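User: structure tokens for this one?
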Amino acid sequence: MDTSNRLPAKKTLSQPDNLDWVRQSLADSSGLSLKQFCIQTCEHFGFLNSRGEPQIGNCALALRALDEKGLISLQKSLGYKSSGIGRPHEPRCLDAPVPQPSGLPEDAGKIGELKVVMVTTPEQLLTWNTVIN
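Assistant:
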């Protein structure tokens, strides 16, 4: 099914001159989130809804389609890794496994006080995701 007529952002961003703008803007936009980049792109190309707000979802869909075709790289530029349509989201993890704990007794019953700590920082979240996955 051809959805290009329903996605003016996809059709617009696929044009060669506009694709060049997207590539250059991605190169200049390190540190932005995908949402922030979509807002910037919507403002540049005039992708606005009837209330004058950026069409972030439509723009993100178009950018992901370009990324999946290999025409742009969202991961290289923004650190965004597309999970693709129909595939489960992959949580961000550390680059290497979490090291095995040291100094623990062999019998779990001999472990002293355990404390539950709420994961609150990005570093803790990466560690948690790595251990759980």
